[in-house]
Amino acid sequence: MGKRKAAIENYISGRIRLYGDNILNSQEFGNTTDEVHHKHSSLEDHTLNVTIAGAKLCRRLNKMHIDVDEKDVIQASLCHDLGMIDRDEKYETDKDAWKQHPVESVKSARKLIPGMSKRAESIIMTHMWPICGERPRSKEAVVVSIADKYASIIDWTSYIFGHSYKRNIKRLIKARVRV
């Protein structure tokens, strides 16, 4: 791996650890490891894909002098699907899960992030747009919504092609998780 790529991966993983360490080390996030998501991946893998994509988008946008709150994007990304844990017990149908899990995700996020911003709550609540729910109301919410759709595609292509997206960054993030 080239020095530039390694530096970017270290930067991204460092930012995710800076803003999301308490989430990543929580028992609730630990429960995402064994939860199947998008039929072929884990909820943990999907969530890390969303978070990595969101952090990379923030970095690019900020380089273009478009101010995006990286902390809200990373924290909301890490919490956006926590409401999907035990979804078969909570929701009657997949459609119910799509519509209702953002509310449950916000409840979980409030426990993990004392003083969570209203914007982070809004990001989580609108991440399912345009599939369902309200449209995003901030740049950060658009970033997470796009990252979520991108990560969903990655979940499926990783299954088809048999390799994990951004293995190196995930390895760096997980190396410091203490769960």
Helix and strand arrangement:
Layout: H1 3-24, H2 27-30, E1 36-37, E2 41-42, H3 43-63, H4 70-79, H5 87-90, H6 94-112, H7 118-126, H8 139-161, H9 167-175
Antiparallel strand pairs: 1-2
Rg result: 15 Å
Strand portion? under 5%
Q: Please name the CATH architecture.
A: Orthogonal Bundle
What's the β-strand tally? 2
What is the typical, i.e. mean, pLDDT?
A: 88
Walk me through what this model shows:
With 179 residues, this protein is mainly alpha-helical. The chain has a single domain, classed as Hypothetical protein af1432. It contains nine helices and two strands, in the order H-H-E-E-H-H-H-H-H-H-H. It has helices at 3-24, 27-30, 43-63, 70-79, 87-90, 94-112, 118-126, 139-161, 167-175, and strands at 36-37, 41-42. The radius of gyration is 15 Å and the shape is globular. The two termini are 29 Å apart. The mean pLDDT is 88.
